[in-house]
Amino acid sequence: MPFDEAVKGEEVTAPGGHRAYLISTTPQQVDSSYSCLADQLRGTLTLSQSGLCRALERVGLAASEPGQKMLFMDLETTGLGSSPLFLVGTMTWDGQSLLVQQYLARDYTEEAAAIGLFADRAADCDLLVSFNGKAFDLPYLRMRAAATRVPMLAELPHLDLLHESRRAWRTVLPNCRLETLEQRLLGRTRDGDIPGRLIPEAYHEFVRTGNAARLATIVRHNLLDLLTMAELMVRLP
Amino acid sequence: MSNRDKSEAEYVAPDRPEDMRRLLDELSASADYAGQMVHVRQVASREGRYAEPATQLTPPLQKLLRERGIERLYSHQAEALDAFRRGEDVVVATGTASGKSLCYVLPMAEALLQDSEATALLLYPTKALSQDQAAGVAHALTAAGLDGVLSGVYDGDTPATLRRKLRDGGSVLLSNPDMIHAALMPQHPRWSRLLSRLRLVVLDELHVYSGIFGANMANLMRRLMRVCAHHGSSPQIIACSATIANPDELGEKITGRRMRLVSQDGSPRGRRFYVFWNPPRVRATTRHSRRSANVEAHELMAFLVQHGVPTITFSKARMTAEMIYRYVCEKLARQAPELVSQVTPYRGGYLPSERRQIERRLFSGELIGVSTTPALELGIDVGGLDAAILVGYPGTLASFFQQSGRAGRQERDSLVLLVGLDTAINQYIMSHPEYIFDRPLEQAVVDCNNPFVITEHLRCAAHELPLADPEQRIFGPHTQMVLEILQGNRKLTRIDGAWYHAAAETPQHEVSLRDRSDANVLIQDSDNSQVLGEVDKFDAPPLLHPQAIYIHRGDTYRVRELDLDRRIALVERVDVDYYTQALGGSDVHHIDHTLREKPFGSGTAYWGEVTVYSRTYMYERVHFYSLDAVSRHGVDLPTMQLETMALWIVAPETLMEQVRRAGLDVHSGLRGIGYATRMLLPMFITCDTLDFSHTVGSANSPWNAVFIYERYPLGLGFTQRAYELLHQIMPAVLEHIRLCPCEEGCPCCVGKPLRQYSTWNVERGEAHIPSKAAALMIMEGLLGDMTDLEMPEASSFADTEEGLRLRLERALRRRLERHREPQLFHPIQPEPRTEYPAPENPATLDQADVARRRHLRADIEKQLRRHLVGKMGGTGLAANAPRVKPPSGMKRRSNKPPGHFPGRPERRSEKAGVDRIEKRPMEDVTQPNSSSTSDTHESSDMIRHGDPLAARARKIRKRGRADEAPDS
C-alpha cells in the first residue's frame, strides 16, 4: 500500500530545516463514540472533587484554573534499549477540544525533526500526560534528543497515568497495563491492532519496502493509546 | 618499586634468604638432585633512575605521592606526565611492577584538580583487574584532596542504583571493554554528561589487546572516539603495556592516534636468576620418558616455601594448578604442617569474592605460596613474591617475561624456574636457551581493518550514530563493501549520504569482543547450592561428565549430574585418592564450505569452514602420585558440535600409493604430520598449541586430508594465517621431523602413542601411533624440491585486487549467513544473496547407514502389512496382523540400533596399523537401483528369502516400480 493512501497528513519543517510528517486528527474523526470525550473531560475538570482534579493537585497544578493546556504523549520506537524513535504521538487539550497530532519520521533521517516539533509543541503547554512516561517515554525522548542534538525539553508538570491507575485499581485488577485497563474499565478490545512487540520490525519493513499498510496500523495504535489515556483520566476515582 | 604501599613494607618474612645463588647451590646439593638444572642465567641488577617533571607538582599531588610513600618519581613516570601535559597520547611500556599505574593516576589527578567537572574512563581487560585497582584509585583521589569526586567500578556486578549514580554523577569510571561495548555504547546519550567532559581514557594492560580481541578493541575505540566527538569531547589516551616488541605500533593501531612511547624503565631491579629445570628421564623409552613436570614443580615449590621464599607457580590448566596445590599441601603436611595454611590455589574459575580474599591475603604476606593458572599473569598486584615456577613454556616470550616478572621486587634477588614438559617446544627450549634470551620479543598483531571484525562493529556504530559517508574511512578500506553487504542483509540502510541501523535488535548485544561463546556450564555444589565455578560448554563433557572428579581449591568433588540443556553440573564433596581423565576426543566431522584453495607442492591446501564433533565416551580413574590408571568406565554423553575454521592439506593419491608400497602406514604418517604441524604453529603465529587440534579425513573430504582446526567457535583467524604462511611452516615441519634424534617417532616430533580405548586425546596432543618414516616420506613427496610452495590461489578469479575483493566478499556473505540466528524481534529473512549451496544438514550426515536401512525396512513391512490386511479382510492373518497398539503406559521399543544416542555418528572403526585400502562406497538404499541384479541383492539384505511376507513384498515393490516407470 503506498504511503499516501495509508496515512493522511502533511509534510512539515522543523526549525532546524529537517522535515517530518504531521498527521492531525480529531477524536470525532476516529469514531463517533469519541465525540463526547471532550465534554466529559471538561466536566470532570470543573468538578473539584473528581479524582482527576486531586491527581492534578498532587503534581502541583490548580485544577480549577481554566485554559490550562495539557499535552498527552506516547512514543513508538524502532527497537529496544536505545534505538531511534519514529513516531511521537501528541494530543492537546486547550480547555475546549482535543486535537491529536502525530509526528512521524518517514525514515531514519526524520527523527530529529519529529523530536524538535514535539519540543516546540510542549513549550506552550502546562502539563504533560503520559502512560508510564516517567520511567519510559520522557527519559527515552531526552536520550534521543541528546543523540540527535535537539535542544532539551523544559521540565513540565507530569501526570503519569500508570501511577494513578495503580493507585486507583491495583487491588481490583490483575495488572495495570494499558490493554488491561482498556478491557476492564472501558470495556473494549481493539480489532486489527498490532501488538507492541511487532512494531519495530513493521516500521523497518516500511522503510525498506515503502509498503505502508502496517505503518497505518501503528499510527492508529498510537492514536488509540492517546485517546484511551484521556478516557482513563475521566474515570479516575 | 620504591613506592609500595605500607601494608607490605611492614611485612617481613622470617629468615628470608637474600641470596638466591646460595639457595640454588643448596638445591643442587640435595640427595634427590639429578642434574635437572640444564641452564642457569643470571641477569644483573639495575639501579633506579629518578627524574623531576618539567613543572613542579602542585601541593595536592605532592601529598598524593607522600601518602603512597614515594619520595621521587621514576624517570618513566615523570616522562609520561610531561608528555600528557603537552597534550600527547602516551603508551608506557615498562617492566612488571615498575609503578605503571602511577603513570596514569598522576595525570588523571592533575586533570581533575584543574577542572572539577572533568571525567576519566579507566579500562582494564578483566573485571578482576578493575576491581583490584578501584580501591587504589579512590585512595589516590582522596589523598590528592579530591574528596568530592565520585569514582567507581562499572561492570556487570555493579548494582543498578550505583550504576545510575555513576552515570549521573561519577567522575572516574573503572570498567572493562565488554561493559563499555555492551552497556555504555548503546545507551551513550544517557551518558552524555560523562562523555561530554571526558578528559582521559586509560587502557591498562594494552598488550592483552592483540589478535581478535585487539581487533575488536581497536574498533570499539574508534566507536568510542566517534561518540565522544558527538558529545563534544576529545579525550587524551594513556596506555600501559607490558614489554612487547611493538608497544607504540600496537597503541597506534588500538587507539588510532599517534602515541608517544615511554619505554625507559627507571625502576630498580635486583639480580634475577633464570633456571631451566628439565625433569630427569626415568624410563629408557622414548615415550613418557621424563618425570612429570607437575611432580617436579610441586617439590620445588615445597622446597622454596619451606625456605621462606614467597613463590608463585604457573601451570597451564586449572586441573594442574589444583593438583600442584594438593601435592604441595600434602608434602608440607608431612614436613612443615604450620605452612599448609599459607599456600593457596588461584585460578580463573573462582568467584569474585573468593578471588578478592586470596588477593588480599597474598598482598598482606599472609600467604607465601600460590599455585595458579595464567589468570594471575595480568597486573594484579599480588605483593612481594621472590620466586616464580613456570610449569612449561607459556607459549610466547611476552607471557614468559610477564609471568617471570611476578617474582622480584626492588633490589631483592629473584628466581625464575622454568620446568620443562615432555613436549616438542619445551624440550627444544630446554636445549636451546637462546630461543628465550636471544630472540626479539613477539610482535602483537592486530588486524583492526579485518572485514569480519568491522562487519559487526559497523552495525554497532550505525546503531550508535548514523554513519556519514566521510566517517567511513575510520573503519578502513573494506568499509564500503561491508556496508553494502550489510544493507543486503537488511541490517543497515543508506539514506541521504549516511548509513542508518535498520533492524530492531541491539547489535551490541549480539557481538562479543572476545569471540568466545558465553554459553558456560555452571558448577554447583549440590549440598549447599554454592556455585564453584564455570566452564565453557564445549569443554564441559570431558571435565564434568557424570562421576568425574572435579578439583576445587584442593578439595575433590564428584560430579553427580551434568545437565547440558540447563547448563548446570551438580557436584558433591567426596574424599577420594584418584582423579579422573576423560577418554574420547574430537575430530572434523565434515567440511561445510571450502573458502580458499591453492596448489601446495605436489598436493593441495585448503582453508574453510568445518564442523567438529567432540565425544567423551569413557573415563579412567587415575591414582594420585603413582598416576596408575585404576579402572575405566563408560559414560553416555551427547556429541558436542563446534563450527570452526580449519586448514587442510591433501597429498596426491599416487604418493599415498608409494608410501603404502614401501610397507608403511599412510594413515599414521598423516596423523604424525598433523601433530608435528600443530606443535610448531606457535613458532609462526602468536597462539598456543592447545588452540588447535588435528585429524585425518572427514565425511566429505578426501580420506587423506590432514586437518588442523581451531578449537574456538568460528575460529580466531589462526588457521587462515597458517594457510597463508604454509610455505614457511611445512618446510620447518619437515626439517623438525628429520632432525629429531628419535628412531621411530616421539612426542617431540610426530606424536605420542595411542592409549588403550582412546582414538585420540586432544588435550595431550595424542594421535594414532605415529609413523615417523611414513610422515617423512609423505612430507618429502609433498614438498618435493620446495619450489612450488608459493602458488597463486586456485580459484575462478585470478589473484588481482578485484579477485581478492570478490573472494573476501564471498567469505563475508557466507559468514553472515552462518551467523544469522532467529531473533525475537527480528525474524530470519530468507533470501540469502549468495550463490552458495546450503551447508549440508548435519542431521543427514549423522544418520548412519544402518539406521537408514532399518528405517526403510520398517517402512516396507508396514506397507506390506497394510496391503495384506486389506486383501484378506483382516482374517486368517493372525501371525502377521498389524501390530496392535500397546496398552497405554507401555512403550514400544524404539527401532534405533543398540548403543545409539542422539548425535553420535556411526563410523567405521579405525584400527591401529591397518590402512584403509579404498574408500568403501557409500551404500545408498534410498535410491531405486537400475539393474535387477543389485535389486535382488539389496532385497536379500533387507528381507530374508523364503519368507512369504518377503515374497509378497518383492511383488508389491515390482508392481510399484512398473507403475512409476511410465511417469518417468
Unreliable stretches of chain A (pLDDT < 50, length at least 5) are none
Q: What's the CATH topology name of chain A?
A: Nucleotidyltransferase, domain 5
Shape of chain B: globular
Assembly annotation: heterodimer
Number of helices of chain B: 30
Low-confidence stretches of chain B: 1-17, 755-768, 820-841, 844-852, 876-882, 889-944
Along the chain, the helix and strand elements of chain A come as HEEHHHEEEHEHEHHHH
3D architecture notes:
The complex is a heterodimer of chains A (237) and B (968). Chain A has helices spanning 3-6, 27-30, 37-46, 51-58, 111-123, 133-148, 161-169, 178-184, 199-209, 213-235, and strands at residues 10-13, 19-25, 70-77, 85-93, 98-104, 127-130, 158-160. Chain A is an alpha/beta fold and 237 residues long. In chain A, helix 6 links the parallel strand 6 (127-130) and strand 7. The radius of gyration of chain A is 17 Å and the shape is globular. The mean pLDDT of chain A is 88. Chain B is α/β, with parallel strands linked by helices and 968 residues long. Chain B has six domains: 6-42 and 271-437, P-loop containing nucleotide triphosphate hydrolases (Rossmann fold); 50-262, P-loop containing nucleotide triphosphate hydrolases (Rossmann fold, 3-Layer(aba) Sandwich); 451-498, no CATH class; 517-575, no CATH class; 577-783, no CATH class; 856-866 and 923-968, no CATH class. Chain A binds chain B through residues 78-84, 107-109, 139, 142-147, 149, 197, 200-201, 204, 207-208, and chain B through 186-190, 192, 230-231, 463, 465-466, 490, 493, 495-496, 498, 500-506, 824-827.
Provide a short characterization of the protein structure.
The complex is a heterodimer of chains A (237) and B (968). By secondary structure, chain A is an alpha/beta fold.
Search tags:
heterodimer; A: alpha/beta; Nucleotidyltransferase, domain 5; 44% helix; B: 968 residues; alpha/beta; Rossmann fold; 6 domains; seven-stranded mixed sheet; 30 helices; disordered N terminus
